[in-house]
Known about the structure:
Layout (H helix, E strand, L loop, with lengths): L5 H25 L12 E9 L5 E10 L7 E7 L4 E2 L3 E2 L1 H4 L10 E4 L1 H8 L4 H9 L2 E9 L4 E10 L3
Amino acid sequence: MRDDAVSPVIGVMIMLTVTIVLAAVLMAFSGGLADTNLAAPSADLSAEFVKNGSDEIVLCVSHNGGDALNPDDIKVTAYVRNAAASGTPLIIKDFIGDDTAWNAGETLVIDKDKTAELLGLADAASVSAAAAKSTPVEIGIYHIPSSNVIYHADILLEAA
């Protein structure tokens, strides 16, 4: 008579275990643990400071090859080491116009005012003053949806 209750207790324990496992799996998926991160595009990029026709220094960012990039998804940042300054990050969409893709072979020229804003310097004259000292600048280009760096370099801001 004592063994009559063993079977219902084991059945209830199995049902509870299955319920707890299912709840844990559901929680993992709904909580984002099962999300897959977007892959960053593969692109060969480069950046350099150049003097434009009126002897003002501008930043040129080139897409040398690889995947076409969505301009809305690309952010450029800069950190000027000697000035301990970092400015406002720029979104490539602001410099590419109505194009929906930034393709290999295209170079974007960031004008003198936006270059100063990116560097966190007051104006084009401040950029020229920093260039006279061959100031190192850390440039980063990020793919926003995947939160990945697709280009990073230390380049000199210098008057050539």
